[in-house]
């Protein structure tokens, strides 16, 4: 056992988008587990867009606290148990999932970790956001066979799975948006999408009207902004919208990451009978124990893949966050230790 561990801290709150220099990788004493705590050596942790919101101070009512300079970043992680109390139910060498990522070692309190049982073929897939995509599609948007689905942010951690899951659930046509021509090609060739609209070229509304000439039934919205406006314009009567993310606000250099303003025509919501629901939590269909087995089955059969990028070394974690915010990668971004 080493005497020290490394962790990533917010060094200074940035004005605008965070850069690697706004973080510090520091060496700290090895955590000493208290009563009931499990000592874990992290193997992977998730780099996720909402960190921009946490760095900006978070949002009132959000489930996660904001970060202040000097605080250690956090997020979902997969780690190997180093030591555990006799009655913990896990032993050294077992893999567990918890929320004390962005550090090499963590003392995780009782009740804040869950064991991994091999249901998924790759432990890192537990860091993916398939449960969010599945819950948004089934609980919030109530996807029906044959529906036309639009997923904004189709190349992100949620979107890269949402298109595939919508296809597996029987969607008739699936359209995704992205900001990269290369990613647009991959959405169609690899990730179950029938068409892709490209941000930053022609208006999204015009492209979406061409990709879905009969309109859309379901929106999984990870972006907001212009893309939410375009989805409202393209909605069929009775369309169901699941509002999952706000990347247009979170990743804007002109905002703090804690607001996502957009102007919408509420007349269209009324006359079309559009249902719009904010995604609250995964405490829905994906919380059912059968969900993990279903997802694992999809992964093993190849019907669904887990698009992700692994960045090696905690010292490269700030760069990984910067690249994720800049849209360099497709799918989930993971730091591997």
UniProtKB/TrEMBL annotation:
SUPFAM superfamilies: GroES-like, NAD(P)-binding Rossmann-fold domains. Pfam families: ADH_N_2, ADH_zinc_N. Gene3D superfamilies: Medium-chain alcohol dehydrogenases, catalytic domain, NAD(P)-binding Rossmann-like Domain. It comes from the Bacteria. CDD domains: PGDH. Residues 16-335 form the Enoyl reductase (ER) domain. One of its GO terms (molecular function) is oxidoreductase activity, acting on the CH-CH group of donors, NAD or NADP as acceptor. Keywords: Oxidoreductase. PANTHER family: PROSTAGLANDIN REDUCTASE (PTHR43205), PROSTAGLANDIN REDUCTASE 1 (PTHR43205:SF7). This is NADP-dependent oxidoreductase. It comes from Actinomadura soli.
């Amino acid at each position: 056992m080493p005497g020290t561990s490394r962790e990533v801290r917010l060094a200074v709150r940035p004005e605008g988008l965070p850069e690697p220099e706004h973080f510090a990788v520091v060496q700290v004493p090895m955590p000493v587990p208290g009563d009931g705590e499990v000592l874990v050596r992290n193997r992977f942790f998730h780099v996720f867009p909402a960190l921009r919101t946490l760095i900006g101070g978070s949002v009132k009512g959000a489930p996660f606290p904001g970060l202040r300079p000097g605080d250690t970043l956090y997020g979902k992680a997969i780690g190997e148990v180093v030591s555990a109390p006799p009655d913990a139910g896990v032993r050294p060498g077992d893999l567990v999932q918890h929320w004390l990522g962005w550090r090499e070692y963590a003392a995780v309190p009782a009740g804040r970790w869950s064991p991994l049982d091999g249901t998924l073929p790759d432990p890192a897939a537990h860091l993916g956001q398939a449960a969010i995509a599945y819950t948004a599609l089934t609980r919030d948007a109530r996807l029906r066979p044959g529906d036309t689905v639009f997923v904004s942010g189709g190349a992100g951690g949620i979107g890269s799975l949402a298109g595939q899951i919508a296809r597996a659930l029987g969607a008739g046509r699936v359209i995704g948006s992205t900001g990269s021509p290369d990613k647009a090609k991959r959405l169609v060739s690899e990730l179950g999408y029938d068409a892709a609209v490209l941000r930053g070229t022609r208006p999204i509304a015009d492209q979406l009207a061409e990709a879905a000439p009969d309109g859309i039934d379901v929106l999984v919205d990870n972006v907001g902004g212009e893309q939410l406006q375009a989805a409202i314009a393209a909605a069929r009567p009775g369309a169901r919208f699941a509002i999952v993310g706000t990347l247009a606000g979170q990743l804007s250099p002109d905002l703090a990451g804690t607001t996502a303003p957009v102007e919408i025509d509420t007349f269209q919501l009324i006359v079309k009978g559009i249902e719009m629901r904010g995604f609250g939590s995964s405490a829905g269909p994906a919380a059912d124990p059968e969900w993990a087995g279903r997802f694992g089955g999809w992964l093993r059969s190849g019907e669904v893949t887990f698009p992700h990028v692994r960045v090696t070394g905690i010292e490269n974690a700030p760069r990984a966050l910067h690249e994720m915010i800049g849209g360099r990668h497709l799918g989930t971004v993971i730091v591997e230790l």
